[in-house]
Amino acid sequence: MKKATRNKFLTFLFSLIPGGAEMYMGFMKMGASLLAIFMLVFLFIVYLQLEDVFIVVEALIWIVGFFHARNMAKLTQEEIELVEDKAIWEDMLGIEGVKISNSKLAKFLGGLLIAGGVFALWDRLNWYLARFAEIYIGGWAENFVYSIPRIVVAIALIVIGILLIKGKKARIDGSSNDAEKNA
């Protein structure tokens, strides 16, 4: 399919689906990768039953996709021909193919995969633990066993938030100390 400007109304309609407008305009890799990210995050959230916490992430992906599509729709034909059709993460995240060029991002994605694996494993084991807890400890323990993944995610979010704030504060304090030394 040739990359081209298209009907503005249809482009708007397709922009409501993450990656839809990009594919409609001929950017198949870009659109398919954005749709894949949206769907994989959605499946991850639903599978782990974390809708109440991570639905914001899904909304952010949709918003980014919508405005990316709107920006692409505003390009002229000459500008569209200059845009390279590549996966959305290659431009936004610095990921080229399977190789991840940013080491912090690689560590983050690795941690995300490990966490997903732990939660998937927990999903398979918690039924047995809940039955054991119900028989030998009492009914309240069954509810607690089912709540452990959400408790772990909540604690992880709090710890990550604290680390981000401390890191930001350390960078701010370090730059103010450097400014005082230079003065």
Could you characterize what this model shows?
The chain is 79% helix and 2% strand. With 183 residues, the protein is mainly α. It has two domains: 8-99, no CATH class; 103-182, no CATH class. Strands 1-2 form a two-stranded antiparallel ribbon. A hairpin with a 2-residue loop joins strand 1 and strand 2. Helix 3 packs antiparallel against helix 4 (51-73). The longest helix is centred in the C-terminal third of the chain and has 44 residues, at 139-182. It is elongated.
List the helices and strands and how they pair.
Layout: H1 8-15, H2 20-24, H3 28-47, H4 51-73, H5 77-82, H6 88-92, E1 95-96, E2 99-100, H7 103-136, H8 139-182
Antiparallel strand pairs: 1-2
Helix pairs in contact: 1-4, 3-4, 7-8
Helix content: over 70%
Query: Can you tell me the residue ranges where pLDDT is under 50 for at least 5 consecutive residues?
Result: none
- How many beta-strand segments? 2
Shape by Cα distribution: elongated
- Across the major sheet, the strand order is 1-2
Number of domain units: 2
Which structural category fits the helices and strands? mainly alpha
From the structure above, extract its key features.
183 residues; mainly alpha; two-stranded antiparallel ribbon; 8 helices; 2% strand; elongated
Outline of the structure:
The chain is 79% helix and 2% strand.
